[in-house]
Amino acid sequence: MPLSLPIASLLVGVLLWAFLRLVRSVVKKSPLDNIPGPASKSFLKGNFEELANPDTAFAFHRKISDHYGGIIKVHGPFQQKILYVFDPKALHHIAIKDQHIFEESDAFIAGNKLIFGDGLLGTIGEHHRKQRRMLNPVFSNAHMRDMVPIFYDVTYKLRDAISQLASQGPCEVDLLSWMSRTALELIGQAGLGYSFDPLLIGAPEHPYVESTKMLIRWLLDILPWKDAHELRDIIDVIYDTSITIYDSKKEAFAAGDGKVTDQVGGGKDILSILSKSYSGHLVRVSRPPESSPDLPKLGSSPFTVRANMEATAEDKCPESEVIAQMS
Fold first, then answer.
1. Which stretches of the chain score pLDDT less than 50?
2. Which of 26, 49, 224, 264 is 20 to 30 A from residue 79's alpha carbon, by CA?
3. Cα–Cα nearest to 229, from 245, 242, 217, 218
4. pLDDT of 94-127, one tens digit each?
5. How far is CA 97 from the centre of its chain?
């Protein structure tokens, strides 16, 4: 069966791009050329298979760190030269002291933005720093103290569930599953003011939990076309859940402080604080216009935002970014 013109053109484009990458890797000089490192075993995969193989990767990481030291050159797909840093002082500068200088690659940011939206993982530079400044008050000592009762409530539910299992006689308890459920519930209540799991024996798993597991599986086992459709459906569930939580929070703000404190988290969750950064007005959206990038597609759900006149226009973020923090 002959290939259609668009598919044939795409294949030619991919082959041409791969050929140019090969020529570039041979001809063009790189600042990393003088840095020692292991040889690439594959033009397509580089050293990635050795770096990420779950059976042999740890031994490979130890081998190259012992042999080459803390700064190593490795090869990525299509012979892309990558700097592998294992030195503690260098990592301190990269991850903590001078992180604004060492920004993630364009491909990494584009992938995060595609999956998670314009949140902390999908922005760089001043835009990223603006979001971090907005989140700083949430992690203050005073606010963390307000979260302690939420942590106790969730852990008491975990205690009661495990006690109920133990009261039935000798049994095996899957602590990994219970700890995972507890961690998500802590994040949900303290971070989003939303309950994902009642932490009861036999309680059904929230679709968001299954979708995050599927997302990780997809990232590990990606295949062309079919898996791209599966990823689309996974992200839809995550995004729809975020919209549902965000809509309920804004409607609570519209109903007044009493309604907010009645919600899970008592109005002390991170999302409540983020929502207060918007100037107040009532809005009803049936479908956001295509020319408005700052509004997520909310279907026909009405939504409102609470006034906070102390926030200046330059300190406010688009709603899409607030929702991206939840995804």
1. 1, 278-310
2. 224
3. 218
4. 888 887 788 887 878 888 887 778 888 888 888 8
5. 23
Q: What is the DSSP letter of 140?
A: S
User: How many other C-beta atoms are found inside a 10 Å radius of the C-beta of residue 117?
Assistant: 23
* Buried residues in 163-183 as b, exposed as e (16+ CB within 10 A): eeeeeeeeeeeeeeebeebbe
Tell me which residue of 44, 107, 80, 52 sits closest to 220, measured CA to CA: 52
Q: What is the pLDDT of residue 320?
A: 63
From start to end of the chain, where are the E strands?
Answer: 71-75, 81-85, 281-283, 303-305
Q: CA-CA distance, 76 to 69, in Å (whole number)?
A: 19
Contacts 24+ apart (CB under 8 A), 259-267: 263/193, 264/188, 264/189, 264/193, 264/194, 264/195, 265/150, 265/189, 265/190, 265/192, 265/193, 265/194, 266/149, 266/150, 267/193
CA-nearest of 297, 185, 193 to 248 is 193
The pLDDT of residue 163 = 92
pTM of the shown model: 0.46
Q: Which residues, in sequence order, are CB contacts of 240 under 8 Å at separation 6+?
A: none
Tokens of 285: 């959206």
- Residue 24: HSE in the Cβ half-sphere, 13 Å Cα cutoff: 11
The rounded distance, in Å, linking the Cα atoms of 149 and 261 is 14
Model pLDDT, residue 154: 93
SS3 state of residue 72? strand
| Tokens encoding 123 | 């922005």
pLDDT score of 115: 77
